[in-house]
Write a structure and sequence with these properties.
The complex is a heterodimer of chains A (325) and B (327). By secondary structure, chain A is α/β, with parallel strands linked by helices. Chain A contains twelve helices and eight strands. Chain A has one domain: Rossmann fold (3-Layer(aba) Sandwich). In chain A, helix 2 runs parallel beside helix 3. Chain B is an alpha/beta fold. Chain B has two domains: 182 residues, Rossmann fold; 127 residues, Rossmann fold (3-Layer(aba) Sandwich), CATH 3.40.50.920. Classes of the chains: A alpha/beta (325), B alpha/beta (327).
Chain lengths: 325, 327
């Protein structure tokens, strides 16, 4: 396994590109009615999960909310399995039984994909509890949005994590809007990170449009946790370019605001950093982007051609009877 | 066999499962240092230590969710609700997370968790503390629900629940914690399968289907009616879900009359489901309409007389039995 510093930044850039192109294609396929239900896109926030994943080990635990496509992809779930899940196919990462909001990948220690706002934060604390119970050298990354911080389960979970000194990093992806309600209109605090202080959990603000800053901060915190178990809180400031979900035109914000953030795009930013440092040429970038687009197109084809779970298997996923298929 | 209380039986079950499997831990309000609000976990902290017997703050949603998360990676939590009336604060975790995970992860994550604690009306606790939650939870696919009425059943069902690979609710009978009964010695492994009812008293004239706190009522009434030449067979469901309809049907095939006495509310109550199944599958066996005795459809009043009027009780059950027997 590569250490944090050695994880190739070019590889991480290509992962961000994969997420971006995947989401764009998902949007298109949704409009073509190949994808049903609710679909929340991660475009604009790529540096958050990519930076965080780059900073931890593959067997550390990761759990998130419903805007989860990027988290699965960053963790190593294939674009094929992710797209097939959106298409509701048996080859999907949740066999087509979860859908956009409920991606899971046990093999990659990705524990979902949870669609009730903040209801998974206690689950993340449970993952961290298990780490400490077994005295393992692991960290849990628990992602959620700014909309989660006013739910009771969030508060109960933070208190429990602090009380039991559990190895968990609460990562608030503050994209400024809980659906259409801005943080200003939802939260009495001036800054979200202050929530952590209320539970005596160390917290910091991180620029979520800057891959390197996210990676370095998560790495620093994870190292501290591995030395001596404790919870930590990061308010990662980011922005989603699209609406809350596919059905949301996001008319609650101005074009100017969106443009401002687009200029600070996390992909452009990392590309510029790498280019400036002579680590990436324009040709190389174009090739990475082309590869990402091709991977995603192939995923659409894979999803389209994949079978659906037959109705006869409907009852196989209600109770576990000791033999997993 | 020796005689122990329902409370002791549960305590033995917990101790034996904690002893057997290092992945099992007990978590809840006052379970450790206080020795359990109802003393079910008495002595466990001393025996197993604070790593495995864990006090929580008053945060039902939080610690229920913690248990579910821990069970995603293979631990087998026993989560105690001080009463199932408080489980409603954690309803989202119990209903939306625990039973859904297996399906929505495409079979990757089963949740081997046990939620346990007292359930059902006790005595003058008022509306908020008197909920019988079995019909809420039994309606959720992915959950299993059992309702032991005797010390033996309490021990055997709890041990089975802990070993089950799915979320199981053990709804203990608050009023029966001090009741006594014969239970095998600790050296004999006592496991009672979920979904198996038991005939607690044989009879030939009428079947009384009951569970949890209504079992002693049914047994008492059956004994009294014997003197009036009515022979009642008492079928204790033991589990609400899965439901042992075979045992119910077999009894009715013998008696052709049935009264269901349940501790929940009448609307969409457990008895409503059982009625449906009886009329659907063994309609021709019936010689009389099915009657149900349940709580009245009102929030629980504090006043003792009014509470008595709301609860299923011996008088109501006796009247219902006589009606179906045309006695």
């Amino acid at each position: 396994m590569q250490s944090v510093e050695q994880r190739d930044e070019v590889e991480m850039l290509s992962l961000m590109l994969l997420i971006r192109r995947f989401e764009e294609r998902a949007s298109q396929q949704y409009q073509a009615q190949k994808i049903g239900g609710f679909c929340h896109l991660y475009i604009g926030q790529e540096a958050v999960v990519t930076g965080a994943v780059a900073a931890v080990r593959p067997d550390d635990y990761i759990i998130t909310a419903y805007r989860d496509h990027g988290h699965a992809l960053a963790r190593g779930t294939s674009a094929n399995a992710c797209m097939a899940e959106l298409f509701g196919k048996e080859t999907g990462c949740s066999r087509g039984l979860g859908g956009s909001m409920h991606f899971f990948d046990k093999r990659h220690h990705f524990y979902g994909g949870h669609a009730i706002v903040a209801a998974h934060v206690p689950l993340g604390v449970g993952l961290a509890f298990a780490i400490k119970y077994r005295n393992q050298d692991r960290v849990t990354l628990c992602f959620f949005g700014d909309g989660a911080i006013n739910q009771g389960s969030f508060h109960e979970a933070l208190n429990l994590a602090a009380l039991y000194r559990l190895p968990i990093i609460f990562i608030c992806e503050n994209n400024l809007f809980a659906m259409g309600t801005s943080v200003k209109r939802s939260t009495s605090l001036k800054q979200i990170v202050d929530r952590a202080e209320g539970y005596d959990i160390p917290g910091e603000i991180v620029d979520g449009m800057n891959f390197r800053e996210v990676r370095d901060k998560v790495a620093e915190v994870a190292e501290s946790i591995r030395k001596e178990s404790h919870p930590a809180f990061l308010e990662v400031r980011t922005y989603r370019y699209r609406g809350h979900s596919m059905s949301d035109p996001a008319s609650y914000r101005t074009k100017e605001e969106l443009e401002k953030y687009r200029l600070d795009d996390p992909i452009i930013r990392l590309r510029a950093q790498l280019t400036r440092e002579g680590k990436l040429t324009n040709e190389q970038f174009d090739q990475l982007d082309k590869d990402a687009k091709e991977t995603v197109l192939a995923a659409v084809k894979f999803a389209e051609e994949s079978p659906e779970l037959p109705v006869e298997k409907l009852h196989d996923y209600v109770y576990f009877n000791g033999a997993k298929s | 066999m020796r005689e122990i209380t329902y409370r002791q039986a549960l305590n033995e079950a917990l101790a034996e499962e904690l002893e057997r499997d290092p992945n099992v831990f007990l978590m809840g309000e006052e379970v450790a240092e206080y020795q359990g609000a109802y003393k079910v976990s008495a002595g466990l902290l001393q025996r197993f230590g604070p790593r495995r017997i864990i006090d929580t703050p008053i945060s039902e949603n939080g610690f229920a969710g913690l248990g579910i998360g821990a069970s995603m990676v293979g631990l087998r939590p026993i989560i105690e609700f001080m009463t199932f009336s408080f489980s409603l604060v954690a309803f989202d975790q119990v209903v939306n997370n625990a039973p859904n995970m297996f399906m929505m992860s495409g079979g990757q994550f089963n949740i081997p968790i046990t939620f346990r604690g007292p359930n059902g009306p006790a005595h003058q606790l008022g509306a908020t503390h008197s909920h019988a939650t079995e019909n809420f939870y039994a309606s959720v696919p992915g959950l299993k629900v059992c309702t032991p009425a005797t010390p033996r059943d309490a021990k055997g069902l709890l041990k089975t629940a802990v070993r089950d690979d799915n979320p199981v609710l053990v709804l203990e009978a608050e009023l029966l914690y001090s009741s006594k009964g014969m239970v095998e010695p600790p050296d004999d492994e006592l496991l009672i399968p979920l979904g198996k009812a038991e005939v607690k008293r044989e009879g030939s004239d009428v079947t009384v289907v009951c569970y949890a706190q209504t079992v002693p009522i049914a047994l008492k009434v059956a004994a009294q009616l014997e003197e009036e030449d009515i022979s009642a067979e008492v079928v204790d469901l033991r589990s609400i879900k899965p439901l042992d309809e075979r045992k119910i049907f077999d009894s009715i095939a013998k008696t052709h009359r049935v009264v269901i006495v349940e501790q929940d509310h009448p609307f969409c109550g457990v008895g409503a489901e059982i009625c449906y199944r009886i009329q659907k599958d063994i309609f021709d066996e019936l010689d009389a309409p099915i009657l149900r005795v349940s709580q009245e459809d009102v929030p629980m009043p504090y006043n003792e007389h009014l509470e008595h009027a709301v609860l299923p009780n011996a008088e109501k059950l006796t009247a219902a039995i006589k009606r179906v027997c045309y006695a």
